[in-house]
Amino acid sequence: MMYSDVGRLNCNVSYTNFATPVRGQGSDNKEFSSILHKALEGAIILDSFPKTTVDVFALVLESGGSDLPVVISCASLALADAGIMMYDLVASVSVSCLGKNLVIDPISEEESYQDGSLMITCMPSRNEITQLTITGEWSTPKIHEAMELCLDACSKLGKIMRSCLKETASASQE
Fold it and tell me: Which residues form the Exoribonuclease phosphorolytic domain (predicted)?
């Protein structure tokens, strides 16, 4: 690799053989790895890491649904806890449309019956969306309702994530 003034980010999401009810389902997930990369790269200050590669390896031990938003939020916390310079934490939430109902962070069974899904990944303090994924058929009012639900949940999740980091930092100083 050639010299670079900007650091690089590598992401890899994989599942254990026993993570899902169907053994060996999705042991290496390139799509999830790519989405994780896109969600995090805008939050990390890569200019502060010349000639450096930041590797994020996420291993899902048990899949219960809404795996990707959990992986993204946890990876963001891990980076911040490791002292990687970031513009903001990255929080991620998904919503499933089940008929006329919206379900936030659906479990696997709900995901299997969904008419559509929406996932938002954002930097809550900066009010910036880093990733938006929509699948299925949605009406415009339902999309707006789902986006508001996700953004509100991301804001609340961001506060909880900050609180966890502060607790960890104060506990390590004692």
Answer: 7-84, 88-149
pLDDT tens digits, one per residue of 104-139: 988 888 888 888 899 999 999 998 998 899 999 888
Phi, psi of 168 (to 5 degrees): -65, -40
- Cα separation of 19 and 11, whole Å? 19
Q: Give the pLDDT band of residue 1 (cuts 50, 70, 90).
A: low
Q: Give the list of residues 6+ apart from residue 13 with CB closer than 8 angstroms, or none.
A: 29, 32, 33, 36, 58, 60, 68, 71
Query: Is 70 exceeded by the pLDDT of residue 23?
Result: no
Out of 20-29, 34-43, 92-101, 155-164, least confident range: 20-29
For the domain bounded by 8-173, which CATH number is listed? 3.30.230.70
- Give the global pTM: 0.87
